[in-house]
Automatic annotation (TrEMBL):
Keywords from the UniProt entry: Signal
InterPro entries in UniProt: SLH_dom (IPR001119)
Keyword Repeat: no
Domain SLH: 68-133, 138-200, 203-266
Keyword Signal: yes
Signal peptide extent: 1-28
Record's protein name: S-layer homology domain-containing protein
Coiled-coil residue spans: none
Species of the source: Paenibacillus thalictri
């Protein structure tokens, strides 16, 4: 019989009450409370109170506590099914649970004190943390008074177990935990500090590796090697990004499997017979027969799917966790017949990926596991592959090899085996460098100016070189190109141009509206602007009333000179504004965006962007577009979302990118990257946050209201590309790529 709950509902009804001595789902003790908001700040309101008689009383009693997987804010296809397996396992260990109001708040950020508490529990040190001696410890931190009374023991034990650094003067208990801090904490909890210290000079291959402090590099390197963390699809680590409760559940579960205490309460064995009368009979690894009394709502996980007890098969190898005689968690680690559980592999990926090869390369397909996810990616027939620092063929790769790979256009072009199967830690042959090309490539040699030094590289004749997203040969590279190179033994395997050296750089904004950064090829002739485009030229007509600035002053077209560095605003292939400076000059026309906060009066425009208010004066001759039609200032309305371009806060151009709800009756799409979701008090999706590229090329995060009847295609995973459909200022459809 199929499992009655659909994936869309994610109604995984593990809601059981067990007799247990210690622990609470929200880490609170005594009279401390958490409020119901996602930022988990302390609050004194009466909802969600945690009674010291029932939670964390510091004694081994028969106090009841609830483990709930049927979280009301993780239903209705909200996209959190990927996290439930981690959450269920952690809940069965009493490490990390939900809240008393029936929510888990997966998108809520985790505070540092919550993360510390979970780490101590994971290390099996909770009893020590709750002892009277630790609970009454006098902490020497500058902000010791901010540490909740129930958490003093946890901080004391964390300090004794080197989870704090020597220079940490503050606990910062209510500060959100970011990815770098949480990663470092878990590496320390795994007692891998010495390994991290040995890797402090390792070159990280993340695109934003320069944002990771030198003293933290080793911790990130170890965490990646251990499979605790990985980069995002754009090859960034994002060290300062706050960690959500769903994300840290995955981190804690991965780390917990590597601790010696991870087997506490764990029983491993082979299923002897079909489940009967809610009793699961297994043969343990020691050869004994064990009868496990399954809780009616036990979480049972097989082949990447939650199942019922009747779907377990004789011969399945399982691990289970039992509390006070009731088995609450079962996971099949090997299917009957000897095969390992399968996951639906990810078949498209771009950027850096680290993991372990699951099998030898078969038919130009690379299969690897990274964390708990399987990837099956096509291998370019000319891909560069390195093992022991030597260029080899795909047939030299072995199952179990730990690798770094790079993929472009969803195809693997580079693989470096960082630790061959069965071998110990290897020298670090791989590195990456970013800088500007000092001269054209000659004799297979590339010279790169990194800012601090000039470096010379040989490049492999089979190297993959990308410019403007297209694979090119080395002769297409130009002196001055900003470029990132990935090397093995100082030989370039992959090179990617991140910014062109010459020719106009255009940024699409909205339809035919573009910004062009270029060099004037000649003076303006007959109201025609001609710019240099590599070895050729490109011409645009100049609008009769165009705004022209030169060296910071409003001027006319006659003042523009050949060789000027210019920024053109082009609409419908006509130049509406030009700002010029010498090559060493400073361009000062700026762009902004936001929502018109109030009716425009006396040519004053007030914009609100993510809570920040900016006031502009609109030039009497400003160019204004609304609904794709050039119009005047009086047609703009409060609530319109606009893009503006200004000089010294004097607006020269306004374009309405989204009309206010009173006039917005047509649907349009919004593209970007999902950065967050928010649920209302009923656990229903109410808003989504999307990171988008603005009309001026800058990046911003915008919040959109969601229709109660929204259609969601895919799982809402932060960091994934998303397409929204907006109708009357409400999101009616969300598609996640």
């Amino acid at each position: 019989m199929p499992y009655p709950y659909s994936k869309q509902m994610i109604a995984l009804g593990l809601s059981l009450v067990m007799a247990m001595g210690v622990g609470t789902s929200a880490f609170a003790k005594g009279n401390d409370k958490f409020d119901n908001r996602s930022n988990n700040r302390f609050d004194n309101r009466s909802d969600n109170r945690f009674d010291s008689r029932n939670f964390f009383n510091g004694k081994k009693t028969t106090t009841q506590y609830k483990v709930n997987i049927n979280f009301k804010d993780m239903q209705n296809g909200q996209g959190w099914d990927w996290a439930l397996r981690y959450i269920a396992d952690l809940a069965s260990r009493n490490v990390f649970n939900g809240y008393e109001d029936g929510t888990f708040r997966p998108q809520a950020t985790v505070t540092r004190i919550e993360a510390i508490t979970a780490a101590i529990r994971l290390m099996g040190l909770e009893s020590q943390a709750q002892s009277s001696s630790e609970m009454s410890a006098s902490l020497n931190f500058a902000d010791a008074k901010q540490v909740p009374s129930w958490a003093v023991g946890y901080v004391s034990v964390a300090l004794k177990n080197d989870l704090f650094g020597e220079n940490d003067n503050n606990v910062n208990p209510n500060q959100p935990a970011d990815r770098l801090w949480a990663t470092t904490l878990l590496v320390k909890a795994l007692k891998l500090t010495s390994q991290a210290e040995a890797k402090m000079n390792q070159k990280l291959s993340f695109a934003d590796a320069n944002k990771i402090p030198a003293g933290s590099v080793g911790f990130v390197a170890v965490a990646v090697e251990q499979g605790l963390v990985n980069g995002f699809e754009d090859n960034t680590f994002r060290p300062n990004q706050s960690v959500t409760r769903a994300q840290i559940a995955a981190l804690l579960d991965r780390a917990g499997d590597k601790l010696s205490d991870s087997e506490d309460g764990l029983l491993v064995g082979t299923v002897n017979s079909p489940v009967s009368g809610n009793v699961l009979t297994i043969t343990t690894t020691s050869g004994q027969t064990a009868n496990l009394a399954l809780d009616p709502n036990a979480f049972i996980y097989r082949n990447n799917t939650r199942i019922t007890a009747s779907q377990l098969q004789t011969g399945d190898i399982i691990k289970s966790r039992t509390v006070n005689g009731s088995t609450i968690f079962v996971e099949v680690t090997q299917l009957s017949g000897g095969s390992t559980p399968t996951t639906t592999p990810i078949t498209s990926y771009n950027g850096l990926l680290s993991g372990t090869l699951s099998s030898v390369v078969n038919g130009y397909t690379v299969t690897l596991t990274s964390g708990n996810q399987t990837y099956s990616l096509p291998l370019n027939s000319s891909a560069l592959i390195y093992r022991y620092g030597t260029n080899v063929g795909a047939s030299s790769l072995q199952a179990g090899d730990i690798i770094n790979l790079r993929a472009y256009n969803n195809t693997v072009v580079f693989i470096d085996v960082t630790q061959p199967y069965g071998a110990g830690t290897q020298p670090n042959y791989e590195a990456s460098f970013t800088g500007k090309l000092a001269s054209p490539v000659s004799n297979n040699v590339m010279v790169l100016n990194t800012g601090s030094e000039t470096k010379t590289f040989a490049y492999n004749t089979g190297a993959f070189i990308y410019r403007n997203g297209v694979q090119v040969n080395a002769s297409s590279l130009q002196a001055g190109d900003s470029i990132t190179v990935y090397t093995v033994n100082n030989t370039i395997a992959v090179a990617e141009v991140t910014a062109n050296a010459s020719g106009p750089v255009t940024t699409a904004t909205n339809g035919s509206d573009i910004i062009v950064n270029a060099t004037l090829a000649s003076t303006v002739n007959g109201n025609t602007v001609t710019i240099q485009n590599g070895s050729s030229t490109q011409s645009y007509p100049l609008q009769a009333n165009a705004f022209i600035y030169r060296s910071g002053a409003l001027t006319n077209a006659a003042s523009l000179l050949a060789g000027d560095a210019v920024v053109l605003h082009v609409k419908d292939n006509i130049v509406w504004s030009v700002e010029a400076a010498t090559v060493s000059g400073q361009l000062t026309v700026t762009s902004g965006s936001g929502t018109i906060a109030s009716a425009i009066s006396n040519n004053v425009l007030v914009l609100n962007n993510n809570g920040q208010t900016t006031t502009y004066t609109v030039d009497a001759n400003a160019v204004i577009y609304r609904n794709g039609v050039q119009t005047n200032l009086s047609t703009l309305q409060a609530g319109d979302i606009v893009v503006v371009r200004s000089y010294a806060n004097n607006v020269l151009y306004i374009e309405v990118t989204q009309a206010s709800s009173s006039n917005n009756t047509s649907a349009y799409t919004i593209n970007g990257t999902l950065s967050g979701v928010n649920l209302n008090n009923q656990g229903v999706l109410s808003t989504v946050s999307v990171t988008q590229t603005n009309s001026d090329g800058t990046i911003s995060t915008n919040v959109y209201n969601v229709s109660p009847s929204v259609t969601i295609n895919g799982s809402l995973v932060v960091g994934h590309s998303v397409v929204l459909v907006n109708v009357n200022s409400l999101i009616t459809s969300i598609t996640i790529n």
